[in-house]
Structure formats: C-alpha cells, structure tokens
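hey m, so remember when u said the tokens were messed up on ur end? i reran from scratch. heres the input so u can diff it against urs
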Amino acid sequence: MRKIIVAPDSFKGSLGARQVADIISEELLAACPDCRVVKLPLADGGEGSVETIIAATGGSIEEARILSPDDRQITAAFGITPDGKAVLEMAQSSGITRQIGLHPMTSSTYGFGQLILHALEMGLRDFYLCIGGSATTDGGCGMAAALGVEFLDESGRCFVPCGATLENISGMDVSSIDPRVSKSSFTVLCDVNNPLYGTNGAAHIYGPQKGASPQQVLALDRGLRHVSDIVVRVTGVDYSQIPGAGAAGGLGFGCLAMLGAHLASGIDTILHLCDFREHTKDADLIITGEGKLDAQSFAGKALSGVLHLAKDIPIVSICGINDCDESLLREHNLTVFETSDGIPIEESLRAPEKYLRIAAAKVGWLYR
C-alpha cells in the first residue's frame, strides 16, 4: 500500500487548502484505490492559516465584527486552540480580499487591531498573528491606534495614520497602549524577509500588487521610513531592518515595535503544528499545490517548507499557473502539473474545481 501525503496551500481567490486537499485525494483514490492518502492542508501565514492551524491542533473558530481595510463593518473569523492560543489572520481582517477595489494609500490595519483587542477582552494572552495577504501599507499604525497608541500631527491632534498620512506623524505616545498587550505573547507568522523600507522594502516590492502607482510607491516608502524614524526617536530601537519587518505592508514592523512580538516562519511553524515530519517518515509521494508556482514559492512559501522536510521523497506540485524556469524545477526535482494546461487561464479560473480534478487524475494515473 503506497502512502501519499496531500499537502497543498490554497489556490488563492478560488479554492481553500482543505478543498484542494479533498479534491486531489478523491481523484487519487479513484485512480489508485489501494493507496493510503493522508491530507495535510497547509498555509504559510497568509490566507487560510486560521483554518489550517485549528484543523491541525483542534479548537474552535470564533467571529468578531471589525472594520475592513476600507472602513466598512465586516465579520472576521479567528481561532482558539485547545490550549488557549488565539490564532488571528490578517487576511480575515485587513486582507486585500476584504475590501472593495484597491486602496493602496488609505487601506488600514485598524481592523486587525480591533481583532486583537477582541481576543484580549476574551481573556486570551497568547497569540499567533498570521500576517500574509494584506491590503495595507501603513506600517501597522492602524493596528496600533486600535490598541490605544496615539499618533499626533504637528498641531498635536490625535489621528489614525494610513499610508497617505504616515509622513504627517510628528509624535507618538506608546504609553497609552492597552495594558494587556504587555502581559501577552505575540508570535508573528510571515512568509517574507523584506525590511520595512528601501528598494527591497514593503512599498517597492508589494505596493504595486496592492494598486500603488510608481509615484505612490515612492510616497509610501517615504512614509514607512518616517514612521521608523519616529519609533527610533520614541523607543530608541530601530526595527526597520529586521527580516520580516516589511511583511504585510510593514505590519511586521508594527508588531515588533508596538507589541513586542517576535517573527517566525509561517510555513515552518505550521508544518510543526501539523506534525509534518512524522507524517512523511514512511511516505512514498508528496503532492503539494498552489495557485501560482513561481520563484517566490521556493522562498518562504508552503512549497519551500515541504521541500526542506521531504528529503528524498518525490514531490509533485499541482498549480494553476507554472511560471518557473525548467532549470529551477530540475534543481529541486519537482514535477509540475498545471490545471490550466492546454486551456486559457481564464477558463481554468472560471471552473477551478473541474480543472483541478483533471490535473489530480493525471497524477493519480501516473503514480498508481
């Protein structure tokens, strides 16, 4: 009996990781009824992390009413593990899919701060903060304001900064933050190592995909640099160059500076919680997957963690789009199946389940 591990990430915007794992597993068993399939849906700190962590550890999914990145009332889900750890997902509160349209200069992390506040009011003091999938580039200032940090303009008036107004901050009072924050522990799960600002920082690398024009990218980068200068002036500590400070539009920086958080690899943490190493000890094949396979997949995303732990086990990736050079795939001994193979990408996106089943069936018949 062959043992196959099915460990995909979500196909962002179309299928969740659990849906993907279920579909692949069904097609594998149809082609190879006598194989043993173990489903381990994954996430890397972005979309789907709450569902993945709660599925791996047990616990419950709760909901809270908060503000969206574009200032609308929405409902955000979060998790509580059996040992009382809160699992909060930025994509649920301040994610790019939680707003109407793109608002690179004004999208706010205020709702994420409200989500933290809600968990604190429930008595939770130990947190996983999953910060992928953001709509924002506010350096975490919105989150901090929701938790009580006061940002002052040159007239001494208190305001909630967004990307467009970061340079208007002339003072900051961190003593006003909710006192429960200092009695809590925050582990930030992220999948990037960017600094806060500069050519490899949050605005330059991720601003364009959030809708920022070249001029807006430059303005956002200046704002993030200015926030860092203010924090250094107030706290005496420069957090801006810590790897991951630029994650989620600088929310990594905000969590370091305002919450006393420490940053951790999202995929490494989640693989540990899923007991991935133990599950793969006697595996014959690992099937992973994601919406778009590209060079970033090998640097902090779910695939990179799977490759690190898989050792000599063959790995197949089922993806929507493969944007990798063949040399990179050969280097990692990775076999790839595209759901959009032979059809327009638009068609594969219109019926993602149909074409995922077709690709998974091909894998099943090849490896049966």
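this time it looks ok to me. The chain has two domains: 3-42+286-367, 49-267. if urs says something different then somethings off w ur setup not the seq
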